[in-house]
Amino acid sequence: IEKEKIRNFSIVAHVDHGKSTLADRLLELTGVIKPGAEQSQVLDQLQVERERGITVKAVTASLNYTYENETYLLNLIDTPGHVDFSNEVVRSITACQGVILLVDANEGVQAQTVAVHSLAKRNNLTIIPTLNKVDLPRANPDRVKTQLNSLFHIEPETVLSVSAKKGWGVKELLEAVIKRIPPPPVSSDSHFRAHIIDTWHDKYRGVLCLAYIHSGNIQIGQSVRWMSDSKQQTVKYLALLRPKEEPIDEATAGQVVMVGCGPKGGGSVGDQLVSIEFPTTEINSSTTPVRHMVYAGVFSADKSQHTLLGEAIKKLALNDSAVSVKPDSSPALGQGWRVGFLGLLHLDVFTQRLLQEYKAEAILTAPSVPYKIKVKGAKLIKHYKGDEIIITNPLQLPDPHNIAEYYEPFVKGTIITPVEYIGAVTTLCIDRRGSPLPSSVVDENNTMMQFILPLSEIVVDFHDTLKSITAGFASFDYEDYGFHKSVLVRMDILLNGTLVEELSTIVHVSRLEYSARRLTEKLKEMIPRQMVQIAIQAVVSGKVYSRETIKAYRKDVTAKLYGGDVTRRKKLLKQQAEGKKKMRSVANIKIPRNTFIDVLKR
Ligand code: GTP
């Protein structure tokens, strides 16, 4: 197929605006699935694929469509479409020349619409603005067209309208994909080069890759080389994904195909596969390292599940190259892992997939963000090159005397809200140490507000609070805004004078008193009364910022069974002993396990 007949595109949208439903319609219209078949959301194959013993995440579908007597190959590349998955979106977007920007004609432009629009702009993609759900009685296409115009300068006459549910306007949309999106800017006469946008593992065939071919041709049996390690291999499997595999012998520049080099084959996201003649000097290694924004401790619900959870995490991490996994252990929670995520949604999806795909139940500690510090004498710090250190655990903070500067991660938050909540939203954001940027009119009833916010202030409950103060109407999304200078301290918790490592946190100086009070109060609620009096102190560099006391209490569960039945008494004492096993003991104080998981949550 010549490249002029290829279109590579993706659908991007705010959550629930109908991406999967539209993809189903496109698949029907191109004959991949039968109309009305019980196969809805074909691109969400996780369940299906699990039954076959492999896991596929972002699936592409190569569709044939005949328009004005010419047959086109339309590659629909599925993208998660949220900034949390930016590395996934970015790698799949590098294979696209255009996007369908889908907006619910009833709900209108939402925060995530703004984020995906700017992502498409940054990548110079052709944007096909499309209103969905126009069948809804409350749909208001004119209002949404006004919103698109005032926020993105999109001309109303370029906006298409569809109902993905009813199939209205979908044919016109496919034709717009052909007419408006340019063919891939590639050349088929030079050496073969492809870059890997996804990988998954197949029990029998080894690693399978989704590859976008930048130049040249590829054939079954051809010798190829991985750029990362120069390893030479032979192409064993080649297929179009429709989205079912359709084996092919040959593929050419501009196509998005599945490639596999057999059970010993390699392939990782971001790597490049080239023909053995390809001059190494011409390669610009384009993999940018992933930046993890949120870390959480992951532990098994009970010890017997530890191995199962470990295996599940390992397998999932292979499919989700964006997580980082390191072993972690805590006296309270036992052996576990410290896992880095791109954002909160990513964290959610990861734990959900652990449960759904691997039946592994995980307990997560409250998420925290990484901090960066610059040390005064770099030599003072062991194991680190240079003078900048990323801190993912408060206990890694060196002595404050050795720290020259602190940095914390910030985000640019976008909030779309009805105008009557502007005051409440502003208060919330200022309260979370946010600084406002100029706001924009969405339409006469809605406004788009933007703030620069510390990531640490939004990781725990920002979204829920925003929803509750705006009666559910505001939408929120954010993008990375890098590390910025800050004034931070490490706050420790002492129980009767003994440090409890797992409860140390890093806090901004302006939040010191507040955090100290909140932590000690919460601990007072969570730690049960015991034989000794317990002093809970929040301390920074030896200075106490808050203190609570739990009075002593003698708890004898058998007291009311005086005389009585001996076996019953023994049973009660045994139960009490087992309850204690789930506790972590610090300076003779028993702390329930869930304290460590819940105390940092708001
Ligand atoms: P995520 O995958 O969760 O991001 O959602 P999505 O954007 O893929 O949305 P999805 O296709 O799951 O649709 C969300 C809801 O909107 C579903 O209940 C659909 O049935 C409904 N929906 C999608 N398109 C239309 C439409 O054209 N009209 C109406 N009335 N409902 C629609």
Automatic annotation (TrEMBL):
The lineage of its organism: Eukaryota, Metazoa, Ecdysozoa, Arthropoda, Hexapoda. It is found in: Mitochondrion inner membrane. One of its GO terms (molecular function) is GTP binding. It is a peripheral membrane protein. This is Translation factor GUF1 homolog, mitochondrial. Keywords: GTP-binding, Hydrolase, Membrane, Mitochondrion, Mitochondrion inner membrane, Nucleotide-binding, Protein biosynthesis. PANTHER family: TRANSLATION FACTOR GUF1, MITOCHONDRIAL, TRANSLATION FACTOR GUF1-RELATED. InterPro entries: EF-4, EF-G-like_DII, EFG_III/V, EFG_V-like, LepA_C_sf, LepA_CTD, LepA_IV, P-loop_NTPase. One of its GO terms (biological process) is translation. Promotes mitochondrial protein synthesis. May act as a fidelity factor of the translation reaction, by catalyzing a one-codon backward translocation of tRNAs on improperly translocated ribosomes. Binds to mitochondrial ribosomes in a GTP-dependent manner. Belongs to the GTP-binding elongation factor family. LepA subfamily. Belongs to the TRAFAC class translation factor GTPase superfamily. Classic translation factor GTPase family. LepA subfamily. Residues 4-186 form the Tr-type G domain. GTP binds at residues 13-20, 78-82, 132-135. It catalyses: GTP + H2O = GDP + phosphate + H(+). PROSITE patterns: G_TR_2. The keyword Lipid metabolism does not apply. Its main location: mitochondrion. HAMAP family: LepA (MF_00071).
